[in-house]
Amino acid sequence: MSSQWIYMSGEYVKKEEAVISVYDHGFLYGDGVFEGIRVYEGNIFKLDEHLKRLYDSAKSIMLDIPYNKEDLEEIIAETVRRNQLETAYIRVVVSRGKGNLGLDPTSCANPRLVVIAEALALFPKELYERGVRLASVSSRRNRPDVLPPQVKSLNYLNNILVKMEANQAGVDEALMLNDQGYVTEGSADNIFIVKNGTIFTPPTYLGALEGITRNAIIDLAEEKGYKLKEQPFTRHDVYVADEVFLTGTAAEVIAVVEVDQRKIGDGKPGVVTNHLLSEFRKVTTTDGYKVYSKDQAHVS
Ligand code: PMP
């Protein structure tokens, strides 16, 4: 089997040799930002939007990404090409870099960029047909004035803790509320509910990442003539919704059929959810950055 190549600040190295310093503040303190991006048949879906979010996250934590957007796009595309991938998952990480043991980032002179691209095992088809189960968890979403959930930082402990709670409850995903009791998101996906034909999703200021898939679904729903509102809602609204679904790079659009042991609708993926999933899949191969453009020899 050929090696997997990983981009690390200026060079492509073999997976086995892709190591970073234990003094990197990304490792010591979770000081850095990242993106998870998907490639569909050679199309890096919504690459522009992912990079905008990456630069915004970095700006928020005063981390200078030492590459401009065009260079970064090319590095990401080249990482996909080098690994001869068509359908893949990409992880872009920018850490504060190597410093001393103190948490002050001024000791870190060079932020580090890592790009990993690997073949993606798709979620099984049965999961989309069956839907997923959620449980609301006791850990609350980070308050936006503590650690803004809009920043996709390397500090994912909040999300990890709720994922563990969901595992303990024996369900697929956590339903996270904010400190006021309003619904925010899952551990790694945004949430939507459908009631009497209107689609609702929480505003991100309540405590949610501004998901790229979330935004794509908002655009598609509006394009297809659905009424959509970004509006706060509670667990009760979720329990009595006609449909509930999650969105995310990994999950795409997936139905939720049970929340806190309440059956949602008739307990099966709903028509709006299925419609939006099929519309979403139509744009995944076209909306984005083409890795193998016409003048680029296709190697696989
Ligand atoms: N919320 C959180 C906390 C996430 O980690 C993710 C995954 N990036 C999402 C929502 C979904 O965002 P996206 O559609 O950009 O993958």
TrEMBL record:
It catalyses: L-valine + 2-oxoglutarate = 3-methyl-2-oxobutanoate + L-glutamate; L-leucine + 2-oxoglutarate = 4-methyl-2-oxopentanoate + L-glutamate; L-isoleucine + 2-oxoglutarate = (S)-3-methyl-2-oxopentanoate + L-glutamate. The keyword Amino-acid biosynthesis applies. It comes from the Bacteria. Pfam families: Aminotran_4. One of its GO terms (molecular function) is L-leucine-2-oxoglutarate transaminase activity. Keywords: Amino-acid biosynthesis, Aminotransferase, Branched-chain amino acid biosynthesis, Pyridoxal phosphate, Transferase. It is an enzyme of class 2 (transferase). Its EC number is 2.6.1.42. The keyword Metal-binding does not apply. Its cofactor is pyridoxal 5'-phosphate. GO terms for cellular component: cytosol. Gene3D superfamilies: 3.30.470.10, D-amino Acid Aminotransferase, subunit A, domain 2 (3.20.10.10). Pathway: Amino-acid biosynthesis; L-isoleucine biosynthesis; L-isoleucine from 2-oxobutanoate: step 4/4; Amino-acid biosynthesis; L-leucine biosynthesis; L-leucine from 3-methyl-2-oxobutanoate: step 4/4; Amino-acid biosynthesis; L-valine biosynthesis; L-valine from pyruvate: step 4/4. GO terms for biological process: isoleucine biosynthetic process; L-leucine biosynthetic process; L-valine biosynthetic process. NCBIfam families: ilvE_I, PRK06606.1, PRK08320.1. Acts on leucine, isoleucine and valine. Belongs to the class-IV pyridoxal-phosphate-dependent aminotransferase family. PANTHER family: AMINO-ACID AMINOTRANSFERASE (PTHR42743), AMINODEOXYCHORISMATE LYASE (PTHR42743:SF11). This is Branched-chain-amino-acid aminotransferase. It comes from Halobacillus karajensis. The lineage of its organism: Bacteria, Bacillati, Bacillota, Bacilli, Bacillales. The gene is ilvE.
